[in-house]
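Data deposition worksheet. Section B asks for the primary sequence of the deposited chain exactly as it was used as input, without tags or linkers unless they were present during the calculation. Section C holds the resulting structure in token form. Section D is free text for depositor observations; keep each observation to a single sentence. Incomplete worksheets are returned to the depositor.
Section A, Depositor: J.P.
Section B:
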Amino acid sequence: MLSKYLGLLICLFMVMGALFQIGIFLYIDINSILIVFGGAFGYSLIQNKKEDYITNFGKGAIFFGWLGMLIGLIALTGGKYDNWGDIDKMGVALKVLMLPVFYGYMIKLITIPFNNQK
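Section C:
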């Protein structure tokens, strides 16, 4: 049991070290956080299994991370914001489009040690 938490700490230490080296503020986007956390919460409620709530929260985070990426990709390529071909605008849009997937997998990583063993 202790090895699960030690493994989680090592993984988080490695990821956080890379984030702080590059710049932590590049990885913060409120809209991406909301879609992933809100979707994960809704997914765990849909599953309606209180004993597996944390596991389902992690699964939902991954699903909604990918959905957030698809939404961002459609917004990027749809042309509504006239950013196609402008590298300055596209760089920010690409960052925002990738963050939901990153958040989803980070949440899943954090929920792994809390999975119910049967």
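Section D:
The radius of gyration is 16 Å.
The mean pLDDT is 88.
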